[in-house]
Amino acid sequence: MKVAIPINGDRIAPRMSLAKEVIVVNLQGKGEIEREEVDISHLHPIEVPDFLASKGVTKVIAGGVDWHLQEIFKLHNIDVTWGIIGNVDEVLTFYQQKGLQLGMGPCPPRRRRRRFRGFHF
Amino acid sequence: MEGKKDHFSTILDSTADGVFTVDKEWRITSFNKSAERITGFSKEEAIGQYCYEIFRTNVCMDRCSLRETMQTEQNIINKELNILDRYNQEVPISISTAVLRNAKGEIIGGVESFRDLSLIKELDKEIHEKYSFQDIITKHPSIVNIFRILPDIARSEATVLIQGESGTGKELFTQAIHNLSSRRDGPLVKVNCGALPETLLESELFGYVKGAFTDAKHDKPGRFKLAEEGTIFLDEIGDIPPGIQAKLLRVLEGKEYEPLGGISTIKADVRFVTATNKDLQKMVRLGQFREDLYYRLNVVKIDLPSLKERRTDIPLLIEHFIGKFNKKTEKEIQGLSAEAMNVLMNYFYPGNIRELENIIEHAFILCKGALIQWKHLPSHLRDQKVPVTENGSIKEMEEKHILSTLQRYGGNMTKAARELGIHRTTLWRKLRRMKTL
Q1: Domain at B394-433: CATH architecture
Q2: Which of A14, B35, B226, B435 could form a disulfide with B56 if both were Cys (CB 3.0 to 4.6 A apart)?
Q3: By CA distance, what is B52's nearest residue in A?
Q4: Is B147–A72 a contact, with Cβ atoms under 8 angstroms apart?
C-alpha cells in the first residue's frame, strides 16, 4: 500500500494545500519497502490528488485538508486521514501499530523505554 | 507567585479574544479559553505544539507575523488572515502580536491575540458579493469533478460557457476560473445581459465616444475596456438581442471592437466566461440565437446540476445555512425535525440553493427552540407536506436512502458510496449497523 504524507521538514505539513513536498511510502505489513520524496510545488492543490493517484497512492495522512480537496481524493478512491500533527516517522509507526483516527490532533510521540537502573530502596 | 499566575490566566480566559503565547522555539506555552473555542483545539492539546501546526494559517510558513515581531521587536496590530480550525474550516481572524519579555527585559517568546471575523466576513460577502468557489458546498461527484478540471480550464484562454438553472452557482464558478487563471490580478467584470435594454447594453459593453448621441457629453469606456487584461463575465447570455449577438461575435473572433460613435478600433484583451439558464442549443434550432456565436461561446462547457439532481447535498447545505444563520442571529438552532427534513428532502427547489437558503432564513425567524419544525417552513412547502411514517426519524430516512441508492446501483457498493458522498468503508459500516450485511 502506498501512503502519501505532505511534509514540512521532518513534520507533517500543517496544511495540505500549502505543502511543497510529499513523501510517498510503500508499506507492506508492518514494514516499509520504499520511500520517495516528491516535489509538488509546481502543482495547484486541486491537481495533487490526480498526481498522487497516478503514483499508485491509496492513502493520505495529513494535517489540515480543505474539504474540496478531500472530495477530490474521494473521487480517486484515496482515503484521507486528516488532522494529524507530529513527526513523520513517529506518525507512520503509530499508524502501523495502532492506526490513526480522523482529526486526532497531536500524535503521541514514540515511547522510549527507560533503561533499567536497578531497584531503589 | 502561583496565585498571580492563576489571576492572569483567569483574566485571559475571560476575554472574548483568543490569546496564546509561544517560546523562542515556536512551541505554545499558554492558550486561553477563546483560543480553544476559535481553533477547536483544547489547551491540553495545544500546549507544547508548534503554533503553526495548531493555527495552520495561510501565511505561517512564509510571512509569519509573530516571527516578524520577534525579529523586529515591532508590534503588529489587526492583521487579517485565515486559520484552518480543527475541523478543516477556514476561519478568518484578525491578529495582533507583541514580544514577551522576562523580568530582566530579555525576549523569551511572543504573544498573539486574535479575533474571530467569521460573522463580519460573512456579512461583507453578502453585501459585496465577494463569494469564491470555496463557498460551494457540495459532495456531489459531478460538481467535485468540475473542481478537478477547473485549474486546467482556468489556465487555458478558452471561452467558457456555464449552463445551469438560476441559483446553481454559475457566478461562483466564474470567480473560481478567474482566480485560478493567469489573469487573476486583472479585473473580473460582470455584466447581466438580461437586465439591460438593447441600446443600454450596447453602450455598456462597448462604451461610447463624446457626441455619439445627445447625452454623450464625454467618452465612456465600456465593460470590455474595464475588463482589460482580466475576465468579462456575461451572465444571461441567452437574453442578448440579435443586433448585439453579431457585434459580440466580432469581438470573440477578432478580439476587437469599436465604441459607439467611434471610428478607431480597440483591441480587447479579455477572457470570456458566459452563463445562461436557457438551452442555447434549442434557441439555435429555433433561430433565436446565432449558431456561429453559439459555437464560439461553447468552447468549454460546464453543466451545473440543479439542486434536485444533487439531493445528497441538501443535508450538507442545510447544516451550512443553519451554522451561518446561527452566527448571524446569535441563535443556537441545532437542526431540523425529521418531519421538516423530510419535506425539504422531497421538495423540487425551482430556485435551487438560493431558495433553500431563503427557506432556512424564513424558518430561523419563526423558530424559537433548538429544532426547526414543519410549522416553521414557508406555507408553500407546508402545503406539499410529505407524510412521515411512524418511524420517520432522520436515521430511518438515512437508512431508506442508503438502501434505495444501493438498489439503484444493483448492489454495487463503490458506485452507491460515490453517489451518497461517503467512503465505501463508511457505507459498509452503516450497512453492518443496519444488519443488512
Answers
A1: Orthogonal Bundle (1.10)
A2: A14
A3: A14
A4: yes
